[in-house]
TrEMBL record:
The keyword Amino-acid biosynthesis does not apply. GO terms for cellular component: plasma membrane. The lineage of its organism: Bacteria, Bacillati, Bacillota, Bacilli, Bacillales. Pfam families: ABC_tran, BCA_ABC_TP_C. Residues 8-256 form the ABC transporter domain. InterPro entries: AAA+_ATPase (IPR003593), ABC_AA/LPS_Transport (IPR051120), ABC_transporter-like_ATP-bd (IPR003439), BCA_ABC_TP_C (IPR032823), P-loop_NTPase (IPR027417). One of its GO terms (molecular function) is ATP hydrolysis activity. Keywords: ATP-binding, Nucleotide-binding, Transport. This is ABC transporter ATP-binding protein. GO terms for biological process: D-alanine transmembrane transport; L-alanine transport; L-isoleucine import across plasma membrane; L-valine import across plasma membrane.
Length: 259
């Protein structure tokens, strides 16, 4: 069924770093439940765009609306609470913490029990803690990580660390999940499994997903729609077929494989 109101609406948004227009005049809409790709050559502005959506940078132009509310001047933690979670191009786990604690850290800010009950170890705290454990294990199971729950995150194989990052992002209970090259450094089998998993969690958690990915066949295979950035500006948007055959996209990727 067609939806008339987007979950995320980005209007003419951009940011300048000195003279460099890293992201410029970008319009983008995501509707609830969509899995959408964001692609573009190196330095096109993809990660900067995620940084604008998550409050790391404040746009110098335009507007960003989630469910109609402006995110533009909110700090990152408030944007997370409003329902936007992300993963990073370079894994940012708490390496010395256990796998389960990495998930619980994200979940903590949303848990019902407050500081007084935690400090004094009141019964309410224990029920909160138990609830958090169960919830965290539920996420870990989905990602096949429950058997590593007490292992330090830094000791996990690389592909599992990437999965743990997504599990942690999910634990913050997002409406919108932003994945920055989640398959970077994975082998083809791990990548395929990860993409299936992303499709699965999208449905299971009623998520909307925006995915930055360099691997073109992968983006084309998994996303319903794709936006293309080049030199900070959107040069195309459409279905995988439309993008594959778009002359501007082919030109931007000259010398690279588009399909
Ligand atoms: N804080 C900053 N200060 C100055 N320039 C920046 C800053 N952050 C990003 N840039 C510049 O903005 C441009 C876009 O960078 P960005 O990392 O967003 O591209 P990208 O599409 O994510 O690239 P890649 O695919 O290589 O990760 C680059 O020219 C980059 O050098």
């Amino acid at each position: 069924m067609a939806q008339d109101k987007p979950l995320l609406k980005v209007e003419k948004t951009g940011i300048r770093f000195g003279g460099l227009k890293a992201v410029w005049d970008v319009n983008l809409e995501l509707f609830q439940g969509e899995l959408v790709g964001l692609i573009g050559p190196n330095g096109a502005g993809k990660t900067t765009f995620f940084n604008l959506l998550t409050g790391v940078y404040v746009p110098t132009e335009g507007e960003i609306l989630l469910d109609g509310d402006s995110l533009k001047k909110l700090p990152p933690y408030k944007i997370t609470r409003k329902g936007v979670s992300r993963t990073f191009q370079n894994i940012r786990l708490f390496g010395e913490l256990s796998v389960i604690d990495n998930v619980k850290v994200a979940y903590h800010s949303l848990a019902k029990h407050g500081i007084p009950s935690s400090v004094f170890r009141l019964p309410k705290h224990f029920s909160g803690e138990k609830e958090m454990d169960e919830k965290a294990v539920e996420f870990l199971k989905i990602f096949g990580l429950d058997r590593f729950r007490d292992e330090k995150a830094k000791n996990l194989p690389y592909g599992q660390q990437r999965r743990l990052e997504i599990a942690r992002a999910l634990a913050a209970n997002p409406k919108l999940l932003l994945l920055d090259e989640p398959a970077a450094g994975m082998n083809p089998q791990e990548t395929k499994e990860l993409m299936n998993l992303i499709s699965f969690i999208r449905t299971r958690f009623h998520l909307t997903v925006l995915l930055i990915e360099h691997d073109m066949p992968l983006v084309m295979g998994v996303c319903e729609r794709i936006y293309v950035l080049d030199h900070g500006q959107l040069i195309a948007q459409g279905t995988p077929d439309e993008i594959r055959n778009n002359p501007k996209v082919i030109e931007a990727y000259l010398g690279e494989e588009v399909s």
